[in-house]
Design a protein that fits this description.
Number of domains: 1
Number of helices: 2
Radius of gyration: 12 Å
Strand order of the largest sheet: 1-2-4-3
Helix content: 25-40%
Shape: globular
Structural class: alpha+beta
C-alpha cells in the first residue's frame, strides 16, 4: 500500500506550494496548502499524478484557516482508493 502522506509530500517538493500537516484518517486525506488562492486544478493534478487519477475520489478544494491559526490557505480533501 502506498504511503499517501509521503507520496503527496514528495510530489509537492518540486512545486511552488508549501504544505502544512498532511492528515490521513483511514482513507480520508486532507492536504493543507499554505498559499491562499492556490489554483485548485493545479493542486488536484499534482495529487493525481502522485497517487494515480483513479486513486483520488471526490476531491474538493476549499479556503480555510490552516492548523487553527490565522493563516488562510487552500485545502484539498479527498478519499484515497488504493
Amino acid at each position: 500500500m502506498t504511503d499517501v502522506n509521503a507520496a503527496v509530500r514528495e510530489a509537492f517538493e518540486h512545486t511552488d506550494y508549501d504544505l502544512g500537516d498532511v492528515a490521513v484518517n483511514r482513507r480520508q486525506v486532507r492536504v493543507p496548502v499554505l498559499q491562499q488562492g492556490a489554483d485548485p486544478d493545479a493542486l488536484t493534478a499534482v495529487i493525481e499524478e502522485a497517487l494515480g487519477a483513479d486513486a483520488v475520489v471526490a476531491a474538493t478544494v476549499t479556503t480555510e484557516a490552516i492548523d487553527g491559526e490565522d493563516t488562510i490557505g487552500t485545502v484539498v480533501s479527498f478519499r484515497y482508493q488504493p
